[in-house]
C-alpha cells in the first residue's frame, strides 16, 4: 500500500521546483502553482496532445506505462522528438543508428510494436538519415499509445486520484 502511494505521488513530486511537496500527513499538497497544476491535470483528458505538451503529463504517463511494461513506446516517441532537433549531420546519423538499434530493429532491447513494413521503411531511411527518417514509425507508435495506452491511463487509479486532488 505504501509503495503504491509512493508511486502515485512520485508522478507529481519528482520536480520540487514546481511547488509540490509532501505534508506531514503523507498526502500530496500543491504549492503556489495549485491552480495551474490542477487545470493542467484536468486538461490531460481533453486530448492526447494536451498530455504530450505537458512535462508533468509526460512524466505521469511514463510512470503509468512503466506499470504496464510498455514505456518503450513513449521513450521512442520522445527520442524521435529529440532527434528532430539535431542539426549536425554527423550527430544525426549516429543518433539515428542508436535509436534504430534500441527501439526499431527486430529483437531490439526496447523494441516498439510496429509492423514489418514500417520497420523496413525506417531501416532504408537510415542510409540517408534526415530528421524525418523515423516519422512513420513514430506516427505508428503515437497512434498505438493514443488509441490503447492513453484511454487506460485516463481510467487508471493514479490519474483518477490526481483529478480528485485537482
TrEMBL record:
GO CC annotations on file: membrane
Species of the source: Colius striatus
Subcellular location per the Swiss-Prot or TrEMBL entry: Membrane
RGS domain: residues covered: 47-163
Coiled coil (residue ranges): none
Principal subcellular localisation of the protein: membrane
Superkingdom of origin: Eukaryota
Pfam families listed in its UniProt record: RGS
Keywords, comma-separated and alphabetical: GTPase activation, Lipoprotein, Membrane, Palmitate, Phosphoprotein, Signal transduction inhibitor
SMART domains: RGS (SM00315)
Name recorded for this polypeptide: Regulator of G-protein signaling 16
Keyword Disulfide bond attached: no
Membrane topology: Lipid-anchor
GO biological process: negative regulation of signal transduction
Function comment: Regulates G protein-coupled receptor signaling cascades. Inhibits signal transduction by increasing the GTPase activity of G protein alpha subunits, thereby driving them into their inactive GDP-bound form. Plays an important role in the phototransduction cascade by regulating the lifetime and effective concentration of activated transducin alpha. May regulate extra and intracellular mitogenic signals.
GO molecular function, a single term: GTPase activator activity
